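Researcher: Go.
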Amino acid sequence: MDEIRVLRCRKIFSDNRHNAFTTLAECGGRLYLAFRSGTSHLAGDGFIRVLASGDGGESWSHFAVVDKEDWDLRDPHLIFFRGRLHLFYFGRGRTQNASFHSVLQDGIFSPPELLTGIPMIWGLCSFDGNLFATAYQCGADGGKSSLYASADGSAWSLRMRFPFPGTETAIDFDANGTLWALVRDSGYGCGCIPTICRIDPPYTALPKQDLQTMDYVKALQLRLTGPMLKRFPGRCLIAGRMWDGGMLQRRNLRTDLFLLEDGGDIRYLRTLPSGGDTSYASFLNLGSRRALLSYYSSHEYKMDVPIPESPADIPADPAEAEHTTPADVFLAELSYRFSEV
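Model: Structure:
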C-alpha cells in the first residue's frame, strides 16, 4: 500500500526577510540547504544563503553567502556531482538575466561563474555522468522552457524545447534513464495547469503518446506553481503551490503534496503548514524510506487577503498578497512506503 507520512514539520530559518526557493543536498556526511534571501519576493537585492547540518538535519547553522554586486540571485539548486558539491542559480541584472555556478572548494563556495549556453537555469539533476537542467525565457505568451545538458557544469548545450508554454520545470530520472519533467504553465489562459512529460534518451523530443507503454504528455487537472518532482518506481511525488478559485480569485494558498501513479490520475496526499507566498520544495532521500523536504512559506505573516467588500477592492494583481511580506524556511521529515512495480 502506497503511503507517505509527514513525521514532523518545523521552521528552521527566519530573519524577517523574504527567504525562498529552497534546495537540499548531501556532501561528505553533511547536509546543505540553500535559498534566496531578499527584502521581498520581487526585490532586486537577492543573494544565496547556505545552511549546513552535521546531525542529519536536526540542527542547522549558517555556512555561506553567495552574492554578486548589482545582481539579484535567485532559485538556487545544489547537487553533488563528480565528487564535489555544486551550486547553480540565475541572476537578474540591470540589463540582462544570466545563469551562474559555484563549487564548494576547501570549505568555501567559489565566486559566481557565468554559465554559457543556457539562459535562466531552474530544474537540475544528474544521470550517467552528465548534468541535465531546465531553463526558461519569459514572454508575452507565458514563456518557453527547454532542456539542456552539460558534462562539467560550466558549458551547456540545448537538448530540446518543450512544445508548449511553460517556465519553471522540475525534472528527475528513473533508474533506467527515463527523464520525467513537470512544466509550470504561467499563461493565464490555461490557469497554471501543469504538464507532466516522460522523455526517453537521447532526450531530444517528447514521445508519441502510448498509454500501453506509459509514454505520455499529460496535463494535470489542478492549478499548481512552484513545482517539485521526485520520481519513484512507477510513480511521481509532486509538491507545489495550490489555491482555490480561478487565476483572478486565488485564495487559500498553500503547499500541497500529491502522488501520481503511471497511467493514473493525480492523488492529493496532504497540506503542509503553509500559506500566502509558499512552495518551491526540495526533496532529499535519507535512505531507509526516510526523507527531508524543504520549502518556504509566509503564513506566519500573511495567509490571504480580506474578502472584498466590492469589485473595486479586488487586487489588480492576483498575487499581490504573496509578494508583500517576509517568508521563512521550513523542513518536513517524511516516511514513505511504495508497493513494488
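Model: The two ends are 12 Å apart (CA to CA).
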